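tool=predict chain=A
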Amino acid sequence: MAAMTLLGCQIFSTIAQVGSFARTAEQLHLTPSAISHAVAGMEAECGFPLFTRTKTGVTMTAAAENLLPAIQRLLASNESLDQSIAQINGMHKGVLRLAVFNSACITWIPQLLPPFEEEYPGIDIQIYQGSYGDIASWIKNGTAELGFLSNSSAQDLDFEPVYDDPLVCIAPKGYRTQRPGRVHAEELRNKPFVSQQADLDADIQSFFKKNDLRVNSRCYVIDDQSTIAMVACGQGLAIMPELMLRGKTGTDYEMLRLEPAAHRSIGLACLDRNSLSPAARQFMTRVHEFAKRLCKS
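tool=predict ok
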């Protein structure tokens, strides 16, 4: 069987991402017939169907899903090679696919991207926002090259910590504790909590476990902003990372320091930091510099 061409891999990956031959043709500046011809050729080479055509779009077959991680890794290696060649020639160009969780997307990315894009205008940065589980999967299958994660969610990925983010308790405005501005774990026993449905932060789970607390939830939400809103209207307390609240003054909620103190370690994860593209290495350096300034502020 002939090897799948690089263009074939790009077509395969794009179809898997957008779910449409027509949109793939648009993105790759090819004709729809060229896409159909390329897919037919790949299926003939592989000896099995790769995509199922439906009225609503295109989906991968089980066999194609098994191939996707290897194809994504091949494309990532080619992108890294292209960037290395460009760097030797004194240029910076290429693509950086970055995965981020909610609080980092809202608080860090708006401060990190503009100066990076100004310094490296030839780098096309693609952002993928998702849960910790999403980010780990995207890194493993090649959708993202680099991702923000906490140490407890990095699994077996190559992880480099950059910032210790304290966990805090937020409560409705006027909520009273034994010590103003602080709450001991024992005071949280049997209290109602607002919880997030998608993979509850492992560090928050660890705090509950270490202090023998049961999560008594009556309100389940999907993001940090909703958590804050539900706490503010009296639906319960919440344990969350301080990053989402940094620099904000809560007018309708109280932010309480936890006793004993707890934190999560935020960092950058990848498959292998020694194989990162030049753009990814440059971005990682900028994140370290940014985190150092944040710690001093």
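The chain is about 45% helix and 25% strand. Residues 176 and 183 are 9 Å apart (CA to CA).
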